[in-house]
Design goal:
Layout (H helix, E strand, L loop, with lengths): L7 E5 L3 H12 L3 E6 L12 E5 L7 H7 L9 E3 L1 E5 L6 E4 L5 E5 L7 H11 L3 E4 L10 E3 L8 E9 L5 E5 L9 E7 L2 E8 L6 H16 L4 E10 L3 E2 L3 E2 L2 E3 L15 H17 L3 H8 L1 H31 L2 H8 L4 H14 L2 E2 L2
Parallel strand pairs: 1-2, 1-9, 2-8, 5-11, 9-17, 15-18
Antiparallel strand pairs: 3-7, 4-7, 5-6, 10-13, 10-14, 11-12, 12-13, 16-17
Length: 356
């Protein structure tokens, strides 16, 4: 008998990182068992739209998903552009030849990313146990329990609407201090949120400013609204493999520190963790090659956007609108000579390196 069939791998957390690891392991004959303290997948989400970014590499994210063994059995809509608002300039239109991001839905709904990944994990023989902590960390255990503190927070609302499909992003410190806000509408359902990096105590004020802004600008009708909130965590460790525990997703600090696009990092890290078990390769070597350069670049990007303020917001908006935004983003999500030079300064500024 293949000894792999006798191998059970415990996974703590049924988010995108943990479920991706479960899918890959199950396809290779392992028996992943996923534990989650919540009653269902996507429990923290409320059916809100999020973006699966498509700019940090030349390969389309949908092709990358297929390459690592993930089927697209969930809502995954390409968005090629939209509106962008920034201080002291008129609204701009963005248009890209390739999708800038793919719109996905989070939560427990049938067409959500979370539920789609759950169905694939179970279909391949994985087991998911809800409302329970992990029973044992004997042997290799994947830790995918999400963020442990708030480096940024999101406050938003989902709603029904008769408005046409659209995507809008907003840079404005009176609505999203040192962050950004967005409005996404697809087939009569919308998500509006502000992502805040500073002044958390005034979140209610910023959320109110957000709703007023987009209602005035877009004149959208909002029905059956449901509030939601969340937070993200960013840090970089020397190791994410500690005492047979392998940390993935936000448990490993894998997050875009500029804008909080963490889904790609979550899925990739879940895949890398599974492959390190399957092949016996070193997980730290894998994530440091595939993920660490983007993490460090996002740290420098965060430093620059906070340093230049309104000028930086307007500069980014104009760059998005004047050419292909994916090309601009790709250049700025990979380490250049200048960003390598600035990295030590950003490290000193944010002190985000830590140990387990």
């Amino acid at each position: 008998m293949n000894s792999k069939l006798e191998n059970q791998i415990n996974i703590a957390g049924a988010g995108p990182a943990g479920l991706t690891a479960a899918i890959v392991l199950a396809k290779y004959g392992y028996k992943p068992k996923v534990y989650d303290m919540s009653p269902c997948v996507g429990h923290r989400m409320n059916g809100d739209f999020q973006g699966l970014e498509n700019w940090s590499s030349d390969k389309d994210i949908t092709m990358l998903l297929k390459d690592i063994g993930i089927d697209i059995n969930f809502l995954c809509i390409p968005y090629h552009g939209g509106d962008i608002y920034a201080p002291r300039i008129a609204p701009l239109k963005i248009k890209s030849e390739r999708p800038i991001f793919y719109l996905v839905k989070r939560g427990a709904a049938n067409n959500s990313l979370d539920n789609g990944l759950k169905e694939q994990a179970v279909c391949w023989g994985g087991e998911i146990v809800f409302n329970r902590r992990i029973e044992s960390c004997e042997g290799k255990t994947i830790i995918a329990t999400g963020p442990k503190r708030a480096d940024f927070i999101a406050a938003g609302v989902t709603f029904d609407t008769g408005a046409e499909n659209l995507a809008s992003v907003l840079f404005n410190d009176e609505i999203a201090p040192k962050g950004y806000a967005y409005l996404l509408i697809n087939d009569g359902f919308g998500t509006m949120a502000t992502v805040i990096y500073k002044d958390f105590k005034n979140t209610k004020k910023y959320f109110k400013n957000l709703v007023n802004f987009f209602q005035n600008e877009k004149n959208i009708d909002i029905k059956n609204e449901k509030r939601f909130g969340g937070f993200g965590n960013f840090f970089i460790r020397d190791t994410n493999a500690f005492d047979k525990k392998i940390y993935v997703g936000e448990s490993a600090g894998f997050q875009d520190y500029l804008w909080g696009f963490g889904l790609r990092y979550a899925i990739i890290s879940g895949y890398l963790a599974a492959m390190s078990i399957i092949t016996g390769s070193d997980y730290d070597s894998l994530w440091k090659k595939e993920v660490k350069p983007m993490l460090e670049t996002s740290l420098v990007n965060r430093y620059l956007i906070e340093k230049f303020g309104d000028f930086g917001y307007s500069y980014i908006a104009k760059k998005f609108a004047e050419g292909n935004p994916c090309n601009f983003l790709k250049r700025n999500y990979n380490l250049s000579f200048l960003k390598s030079f600035l990295l030590p300064i950003a490290k000193k500024r944010y002190k985000i390196y830590e140990n387990i």
